[in-house]
Every structure is written in C-alpha cells, then in structure tokens.
Write a structure and sequence with these properties.
heterodimer, A: about 300 residues, mainly alpha, two-stranded antiparallel sheet, 15 helices, 2 strands, B: about 325 residues, two-stranded antiparallel ribbon
Chain lengths: ~300, ~325
C-alpha cells in the first residue's frame, strides 16, 4: 500500500488543474493570488532549511518583475521567455550577492537581505530612463489578455515547479546537507560538507524561483512600480504562511498558504484597510503558542496517539 | 609622528613639543573618528554650511531614536524590529491628543511617554519575556510580527492618509551674514544629548542602572548576585519605549506621519547600533553624525536627492561585512 500516496498526489493535481472548469473568475483570480504566495512561501522555506532567514523575498520578486517587464517592453520579447529571463536575472544577481553575503549568519544575513531589497527599490526608483522612475512602466497588455483561467494555469505551473524543486531538495543529499548546516555548522564542516557552496546554490535557486514568480505576477497585472513591485507584502505574507503551516517541510508552507490565503481574502472584503493585521497576529501567536505550525502539531499529535 | 622624531627638535621650544605631542595623540586610533569628523565638519562648513547644519539636525534625530534601541540591544539583548513602529504609534497618540485637547503638541510628551511606557510593559510581559534563550531568528521574526501589528493597527484606526501638525515655532530661523537656516531642528540635537547624558547618569550613578548594566554584561552572574533580571529587562524595555515615545512627539512637530513612517527608522537605528557596536551608547552619537552628514551631503546635489536613501543601506552592508570579516580574521 505504498502507492496510495501517489494516487492522492495525482488526484490533488488533477483537481488543481481542472479547477477553472467548475469555478467563476473571482475564485480563479483568488486561487492564482494564493498560489503566488504559496510558491514564495515554499521558496523562502527552502533557504530556511539551511538555517538562513531571508527578508529579501520582495527584492528578488521585484527584480524578476522588472526584468520581465523591461525586456518585454524594450525588446519585445515574448512574455513566456521574459518570465524565464526574469528568473535568470534574479538567479545571477542572487548568485553574485550570495558570494559576498552568505559569509554572514543568522541575524546579520537577515538584516543585510532586508537592506538589499531596499537598495534594489531605491535604484529602480532613481534610474528614470531605464525603469520609468517612481511612476513605473505600463505594459501594452496583460498576458493572455488577462484571461483568469489561463493566468491560473501559468501560476499553477510555477507552483508545481516550486513544489518539485522543494521535493528534490528534500529527497536528495541536499536535505541532509541543509539539515546538518542548520543544526551545527561545525559538524557539517567536519563531515565534509561545503557549507558555502550549498548556501550559494540554494540562495540562487530560490531567488530564481522568486524572480520567476515576480515576473508572472507582473505580466498578470501588466505594470511595474517601485512601491508596488517591491512591496513589503511579498516578504511578509510568505513568512507568515510558512510559520503558520510549519517550517522545514514541503507540505507545511503549502497548507499555511492555503489556510491563511483563504482567511485573508475573506478579511480583505471585510476590512479594506489593515487586513494585514491578521498576518502580524498570526506571526506572533504562532511563534508564542504553536512554534511547530499546523502540520508539525498535527504530526506530533498523531505520533502521540500511536 | 612619534616621540623619537620629536627628539630632533631637542625640545628647543616646549610649545612646539606640546603641539606635536597633541597632534600625535590625535592620530591615536581612539580619536581617529572624532578627528576625521571634526576636520570634515570644518571643511563642510566652509564649502556648504547648509549641509553641516542640516546634517547635524538630522543626526540629532537619528541619535535620539537609536539610543533607546541600543539600550534594548545592549541590556535586554533583543533586536527590536518594531522600534520605529513604536515611534509611529507615539506620534499618532500625540496627534490625537493635540487634536482632542487643542494644546501645544509638546505638552503631549508626558502623557505619550507614560502611555508608551505602559504599552512597552505590556509588550514585554506578553511576548518578549518568553523569547529569552529562543533562537535569534525567532526573536527577529517575533518583533517583525509586532511591527506589522502596530503598522496595520494604525492603518485600521487612522487610515494610511498622512497627517501633520503645523506649529509656528517649528519654522523658526536664524541668519548669520547672508546665510539663513532653520533653528528648530537643533531641538533634536538637544534631545539626543539630553537622552545620552540621562542614560549615562542612570546607568552609572543609580543602583538600578548599575544592576541593569551588570545584567547586560552577564545575566547569569547578575542573577547569582541577587538581581531580579526579569524586572530589569521589563524596566529597561519599558523605559526605552517611553523614550521613543517622547521623541515621537518632537518628530511630529516637524514631520508628517503615516502608518509606515517608522520602518525606515527601525532600519536606521539598527544600522547605527551595528556601526557603534553592541550596546555602545557613545558610538551611536558618532555613527549618527556620519550618517546624518553623509545623507545631507548627497541631498545637497541637485537631482541626486533620491539617492540619499541608499547611503545608509550601503552603510549597513559595509559595516556588517567589515565586522564579519574582522571576526573571521581574528
């Protein structure tokens, strides 16, 4: 009975793919937003598994978005190709920065990534001729002319890619390397793990994913501005979702994103201003009372039952 | 320029000798930053006097806000990412108070600091108390969560529309020769110096301050000699938040406020604290002078004002990278 897992996975994937056929445009739109945050949360968690916390999600998200928008706008590159270019831009920038920044640990790394995201924004805002300055740039049209079901499939593809990458990280030797690095760097080093190489690799890969997600988000809404594209939401929401679901797993951020995304979308209708309050409360409450997150707590309870 | 070379003067004139000794002392590592700053300041005063005045005032504001953060960092040992948001909260409370009573905004200093003292107390009791010994990252995420709660609460209660209070004396100015500048900004310099001296006296001269200092240096040792460290943490955290509250009133008299106004001050305060070294209060003054002068220097060039924001982010990165490099070398 080992195969029942794969049957469930296939079943869920089928439901997710067929989702637009039995729902309206509003639900499709909401689902794509949730999937975007889901992918961001999962990509953030991948770096967290190696013990490094990044506050720079919004930075690489924005870099991807701007790279895609500008290559599409200036050189007329196909939207799909420009999404991949957005990912590549984030990959190379993260790789180069990572070579310098990943010598830092914990707290210092977190603050520096926060600063880097802000620097990206300041640079983008001030390079008027290239990026359009504070007003940003507007694309001629949204991808697929704004058809929500096709946008949903695009975002779903990215989410599935992220989940697959995350599972690859979990099932290969990368998993053992990251876990050891997180628990004790000295042990990791003496077991022959090249810590720096792994960290730079993971940082670049996760940033590339964030860049691609940012690029598709930009194509979905067909505009970029420094304030919107680098908005703190794109850092805050994934972190809250990941904490709520449970860290260090693939399923945790996914569950967290689905639960919190649904709640938040409902609250957005009730409280147009300040609905993000929920995210702050979730972060604080989860850290204080459920440090393992939903998935971790359920697992613990199940094991205790046995 | 050491004493050996001074020997060739054969001490012919004691005055020269004294002068050289003074200069050689000034090149001592301890005074390097101060001397560089003074020389830079004099040059700046000759070239762009406005930059010097503006930079001093901005530095005062930064220092006054960063000092409480350094205090929390040094004694409680927590990076408070909600620091600037407490300031935003204080400014909003002061704004409501002023609008409600119609009094001068500066009157609000007392109720607002008291209010923030209590809020700080509640925050410590409710959340930060349980974070001692937790991993650094969890502490960071927790205060990040508190920051979001404060921001969004302000957004919910008072909307994101910027508000400000206009007071006549805030635009007071003075003229020296042909050069006119605003004088009200020196309030920030005065506040920074006042806070600095107050904290210095508190930590060195009072019994409870000394206990706090001991707790910051070695919590277990402090506990062993009978200091109630939990009480000390509570007190220091609340005092720091109250100081931020007092500063927020001064901030309100000059700037417009909105829910996200605090974020940048959190980062700047952290940057200054990192430059100064953990819990080093004197270093904060120098660090904020460097940051303030550098920012107004860049702003003084037409068309490059937007780039001024980048300075301190670069400063954060350089400071942290240099620090980590040193740690690896030694």
């Amino acid at each position: 009975m080992k195969n029942w897992r794969y049957i469930i996975y296939t079943f869920i994937t089928a439901i997710a793919i067929l989702f637009p056929f039995y729902t309206g445009t509003y639900l499709q739109h909401t689902a794509s937003t949730i999937l975007i945050y889901l992918s961001l949360a999962l990509s953030w968690d991948m770096l967290l598994r190696a013990g490094q916390i990044s506050f720079g999600i919004a930075g690489f998200f924005g870099i991807g978005g701007y790279a895609a928008a500008l290559t599409h706008l200036r050189w007329g590159i196909d939207p799909f190709l420009s999404i991949i270019l957005g990912g590549l831009a984030a990959f190379f920038i993260a790789f180069l920065l990572g070579l310098v920044v990943l010598h830092l640990r914990g707290l210092y790394f977190a603050i520096v990534t926060l600063a880097i995201a802000e620097i990206f924004r300041v640079i983008v805002r001030n390079l008027h001729s290239l990026t359009g300055g504070p007003e940003g740039s507007v694309l001629p049209s949204a991808i697929f002319n704004g058809d929500p079901s096709k946008v949903y499939w695009l975002v779903l593809t990215l989410a599935i890619i992220t989940i697959i990458v995350s599972e690859v990280f979990q099932r290969t030797r990368i998993h053992f390397a990251t876990t050891t690095i997180r628990n004790d760097e000295l042990v990791a080093k003496s077991s022959g793990i090249n810590i720096f190489k792994y960290l730079v690799f993971i940082f670049a890969i996760t940033s590339a994913l964030q860049g691609m997600i940012g690029a598709s988000y930009t194509h979905q809404y067909a505009f970029v501005t420094p304030e919107e594209t680098f908005h703190i939401h794109f850092t805050l929401l994934p972190i809250a979702m990941c904490l709520l679901g449970g860290m260090y797993t693939t399923i945790g951020p996914v569950v967290g994103a689905l639960v919190l995304g649904t709640i938040a979308d409902y609250l957005k209708l009730q409280l147009p201003y300040g609905h993000l309050l929920v995210y702050g409360i979730v972060i604080v409450v989860v850290i204080l009372f459920v440090p393992k997150g939903i998935v971790g707590t359920i697992k613990e309870q199940l094991e205790r039952r046995k | 320029m050491d004493n050996q070379r001074c020997g060739s003067f054969e001490y012919s004139t004691p005055l020269v000798y004294l002068g050289l000794k003074l200069i050689s002392k000034l090149f001592h590592k301890k005074y390097q930053i101060a001397v560089t700053l003074v020389i830079g300041g004099v040059l700046l005063a000759l070239w762009k006097p406005f930059v010097l005045i503006e930079g001093l005032q901005v530095a005062g504001l930064y220092a006054a806000i960063a000092l409480p953060m350094a205090l929390i960092l040094g004694i409680v040992g927590i990076i408070n990412l909600a620091h600037g948001d407490f300031m935003m909260l204080g400014a909003y409370l002061a704004y409501r108070f002023t609008v409600y009573t119609g009094a001068d905004p500066l009157v609000a200093i007392f109720p607002v600091s008291l209010g923030l003292f209590l809020i700080g107390m509640a925050t410590y009791r409710g959340t930060i108390k349980y974070m001692h010994g937790a991993p650094e990252l969890i502490q960071l995420l927790l205060t990040f969560g508190i920051a979001i709660i404060l921001q969004q609460l302000a957004n919910l209660l008072w909307t994101s529309h910027p508000v400000s209070i206009h007071v006549g004396y805030a635009s007071a100015s003075a003229t020296i020769g042909s050069f006119t500048f605003g004088t009200y900004g020196f309030v920030y310099v005065a506040a920074a110096i006042l806070v600095f001296i107050g904290l210095f006296l508190f930590l060195r001269r009072t019994r409870i301050g000394q206990a706090a200092l001991a707790t910051g240096q070695n919590p277990i040792g402090a506990k062993l000699v009978g200091i109630n460290i939990d009480r000390i943490y509570l007190l220091i955290f609340s005092i720091s938040i109250a100081l931020v509250g007092a500063m927020s009133v001064l901030f309100l008299t000059r700037h417009s406020i909105f829910p996200h106004v605090g974020g940048i001050f959190t980062l700047k305060s952290f940057c200054l604290a990192a430059m100064a070294g953990l819990g080093n209060l004197t270093g904060i003054l120098w660090a904020s002078l460097i940051l303030g002068l550098a920012e107004s220097f860049v702003k003084s060039f037409m068309g490059y004002a937007g780039w001024a924001d980048i300075i301190f982010f670069l400063l954060i990165i350089v400071v942290i990278m240099v620090g980590s490099y040193r740690r690896r070398v030694t």
